[in-house]
Amino acid sequence: MELKAKGFTSIKALLVEDIEVCRLVLSTFLLRLHCEVTLAMNGKEAVDLFLEGKKFDIVLFDKDMPVMTGPEAIVKIRAMGETDVKMVGVSADDHAMEAFMSVGADLFVPKPMRMEALGPIIQEVINKKKNDMV
Amino acid sequence: MAAAALRAQLNALLANMFTTGMVDEQFQQLQSLQEDGGSASGFVAEVATLFIDDADRIIADIAALLDQPVVDFDKVDAHVHQLKGSSSSVGAQKVKLACMHFRQFYEAKSKEGCLMALALVRSEFCDVRNKFQTMMQLEQ
């Protein structure tokens, strides 16, 4: 499912989260930051989107999801050669940081992710994208 | 009742929820998003409704697991973790803390401890559910 902030489509964000209320909150934050948001319910759906050729600037993963976890999905997506896309692990699990960073995530943010934390992350992606276009 | 009076009641309710620690800054952030136009009106109500439905289901699932002759503590862990995630995302602080308190009992594989912890989770959830429902009625 794709959501679009009116008038702004600069950053393509994929949110991978199985819990509906968490999806709603984080996707609202991302839309507020003018991202074009695609939703996936688990790691396998995220992998399938990449296999279909979809491109994203940033992917936010929950850790524990049915079918395929966030770290498992990161391993598969990185193995496809997707080394440029920013991968962010998000979890309420105290031990999640190592699980994400050890498989190639760029960043880990504990749940709940706040706008104050997400804003600079999105800005960094915007800056990188602008620099890459120059 | 006049709109101003209802607004005052709503503000008092929300203030109470914060001062008692029932909700935290995360909930405040969701409110701010709605108030400054960053999200549709009814956003907080939608989040609260989703959380209530989700938590209701999870608590029932945990109770069913603890009712088994042999308890699958890994599944209990997974459900409590899910509830911790959703409660923290909406800012339901006391529910989140009750979930954190739960951990020691399923890690120790103590059915009795888990039942006590579930009772606390259920109690905190009922409190915040009632407040959220009152909030939504006042907002209407």
Give the SSE layout.
The complex is a heterodimer of chains A (134) and B (140).
Chain A: E1 2-4, E2 11-16, H1 20-32, E3 35-40, H2 43-51, E4 58-62, H3 70-79, E5 86-91, H4 96-101, E6 107-110, H5 115-133
Parallel strand pairs in A: 2-3, 2-4, 4-5, 5-6
Antiparallel strand pairs in A: 1-3
Helix pairs in contact in A: 2-3
Chain B: H1 3-19, H2 25-35, H3 43-66, H4 73-90, H5 93-107, H6 111-139
Helix pairs in contact in B: 1-6, 3-4, 3-6, 4-5, 5-6
Organism (chain B): Aegilops tauschii subsp. strangulata
Subcellular location (chain B): Cytoplasm, Cytosol; Nucleus
Protein name (chain B): Histidine-containing phosphotransfer protein
The CATH superfamily label of chain A reads Response regulator
Order of helices and strands of chain A: EEHEHEHEHEH
Gyration radius over CA of chain A = 13 Å
The CATH superfamily of chain B is identified as HPT domain
Descriptive account of the structure:
Chain A has one domain: 3-Layer(aba) Sandwich (Rossmann fold), CATH 3.40.50. In chain A, 43% of the residues lie in helices and 22% in strands. The radius of gyration of chain A is 13 Å and the shape is globular. In chain A, helix 4 links the parallel strand 5 and strand 6. Chain A has a 6-stranded mixed beta sheet, sandwiched between helices. With 134 residues, chain A is of the alpha/beta class. Chain B is mainly alpha-helical and 140 residues long. Chain B has a single domain, classed as Four Helix Bundle (Hemerythrin (Met), subunit A). Chain B has 6 helices and no strands. Chain B is elongated and about 55 Å long. At the A-B interface, helix 1 of A face helix 2, helix 3 and helix 4 of B.
